[in-house]
Structures are given as C-alpha cells and as structure tokens.
Amino acid sequence: MRLGEEIRRQRKERGLSLRDMEPLTGLRYVTINDVELEKGKNGPLLNTIKLIARGGKFDIHRIAHAAFDLPEPEQLGELDDLLKELCDRVMNLSEEDRKSVLTYVKTLTRMRQEEQGGGADITTQDAQAGFG
After folding, report:
1. What is the pLDDT of residues 43-101, one digit of tens each?
2. d(CA 118, CA 18)
3. Where are the domains of the chain?
4. Which of 9, 40, 66, 92 has the most CB atoms around its CB within 10 Å?
5. pTM for this structure?
6. At CB < 8 A and 24+ separation, what contacts does 92-95 make?
7. Within 13 Å of residue 100, how many CA atoms lie on the same side as its CB?
8. In the CATH hierarchy, which fold is given to the domain comprising 1-73?
C-alpha cells in the first residue's frame, strides 16, 4: 500500500473528514488531500506526515511501512519491532539529526555490502568521522 492510500485508509477508519483533520493537525485540508493523492514531485515533508499521523492518532508504523514500500509488518517478524523502535526514536529528532541517522545507515549498509563483496574495508570509525 502506498503512503497516501494508508493515510486515507486510517482517516476514514476513524470517521474523519479532511475538514475534521484541519484543527487536529494545524494543516489545511487541501494539504492533507494533496498528501493522500500523492501530489508533488518529491512527496510530502516528513514533518507534514508527522503532523497528520499525530493529529489523527494514526499508526505511524503502518504509515512508515507504506512510505518506504516495506512488506506488511506481519511479514517482517522481529525486524518490525526494530523498525518501530527506530521510527519512534527518529521522529523525535531534529531534521538535521534525522539526516545524520540516514547517512549513517547508508554508510553502514555500504560497508556491509563491501565486506560481503570483498570491496574496500571501511571501519565504523571511518563512517562516523564523516558526521563530525
């Protein structure tokens, strides 16, 4: 399921109209509608998704699964618990810190791929040096 579809599903599941969402989120109904219809080149800002999810008391984990096109939580098993914890922690960080976390995860992933493929040996300290 895609991000906009998941947000709309959860909104309707709670019996909320787009206009009902305005005072709950602080966003105009047209903005929420644009998110649901997935308008825009780059997709919605993370802060917009957070306002919608918190205002509507939506399940942020299901929204994250939809946003990143992940398998359904039931299919992930133990990994889903890790993703939930990561989402909870990352949502409370500043935008700059969230970008740093993403950079770190990308670097760590690249390091592991290089280890498996016999590429250059990069240590965790080397990866962290890029953030300082």
Report:
1. 777 888 889 999 999 988 788 778 777 666 666 677 777 777 887 788 788 888 888 88
2. 52
3. 1-73
4. 66
5. 0.56
6. 95/46, 95/47
7. 10
8. 434 Repressor (Amino-terminal Domain) (1.10.260)
Q: How far apart are CA 95 and CA 69, in angstroms?
A: 21
pLDDT of res. 74: 67
Residue 84 and residue 61 in contact, taking contact as beta carbons nearer than 8 Å: yes
Tokens of residue 20, six digits: 């009902």
What tokens appear for 51 in the block?
């306002």
Structure tokens at 125: 């300290």
CA atoms of 100 and 112, how far apart (whole Å): 18
Report CA torsion sign: 88, 91, 93, 99. positive
